[in-house]
């Protein structure tokens, strides 16, 4: 009798999970995979769906992260300001205006980035807002904790937001040290048993630092010593790129942080950003923040990528640590290549996440054989996320080219409309091409059969990598 009751309960659980996936998933492949998994494995399938498959933040995201729509006159002003129709792509996808940037600086690796950030923290007089996926309590993390504690002691408002999974999964953890220092700190969707919150998707992968409401940082750097490429004591370092900006774009960073802070803590910081700063007429760099999240109404970054890839006329250079593109992005890259655009994809030779690296290996050979130019860069591991289009457009930030970033995470991208920024980034990437190895589509596959099987199995899980 007990075994019959258990069997019926498992079947009901499996059908409930499968029905939920069928009714809520917007991607037919994802829905089919989850329905099959739940029905074929009545215990493991529903448990996995509970952890990985349910989007619990749709209504919250729609309420907190809504963007205003601009009038036609304002759209035309955006076009004339940036001088290119490409400026309309991000605006129509995100509903966000172009803003002005002054004193923009690119910061290469933690060796340049961390001293600049710490110097601005030491000089802060009003407020410091920090959002990061990882904040490790290593030699760099301890410097940040001390600087933030000193800033708060002199009367600066300090708010620190760390992703709950990022802090847990990448020790040494910093949360207890922040609390011990009396800092204002909260976690984004922390994992806990009571009340149950065990999902590992829908993470906040954004990296921002806002100082005195006039300086903002963003890019790929986490607060971690692993980004110190020039330090021989750091094993397996990761090179990366950050940008420091001033100007009216900083207010958009602030409002984005306030949204994330309110979602995590329940406390509103929006009053700090009520004043709107107009773009100075003499600004030679125009920028736009693209916020991306796991709600289909807000998942804008993929649309922006498709739009700007399709607009490329001269060059399209893409650098990312994780490359698992969907068919639509592969199609846009292929179409650009067929138009005669100089398309190049630069990736790390070895990944730092085994499953993601294996899954990428399964798709790379096919993409290269279809004509996609792919370059592999040897260590140090490249964690930079940057896209260059022609001579006047760049996109950088926190998002990778994979389903996790483009569907499941909260991400942030910064569009830059500037010939000077594009030229700097072009030179930076061009220097890396010198050390990269282009994959030969005619070369035999060096992987053993068991490796190809392993990579194919990992590829099945690519929507969650």
List the total number of helices. Answer: 17
What characteristic shape results from the CA principal axes? globular
Radius of gyration: 22 Å
CATH topology of the largest domain: Endonuclease, Chain A
Cα(first) to Cα(last) distance is: 41 Å
Residue runs with pLDDT of under 50 for 5 or more positions: 57-70
Question: Which architecture of the largest domain does the CATH hierarchy give at level 2?
Answer: 2-Layer Sandwich
The pLDDT mean sits at 86
The major sheet is characterized as:
15 strands, mixed
SSE arrangement:
Elements: H1 2-24, H2 28-40, H3 44-53, H4 58-64, H5 72-82, H6 86-94, E1 99-108, H7 109-123, E2 127-132, H8 139-153, E3 157-163, H9 164-169, H10 175-180, E4 185-188, E5 208-211, E6 215-219, E7 238-239, E8 241-246, H11 249-265, E9 285-292, H12 301-311, E10 315-319, H13 327-338, E11 342-348, H14 354-369, E12 374-377, E13 381-382, E14 386-389, E15 393-397, H15 403-408, E16 411-417, H16 419-433, E17 437-438, H17 449-460
Parallel strand pairs: 2-3, 3-4, 7-13, 10-11, 11-12
Antiparallel strand pairs: 1-8, 1-9, 2-5, 5-6, 6-8, 9-16, 10-14, 12-17, 14-15, 15-16
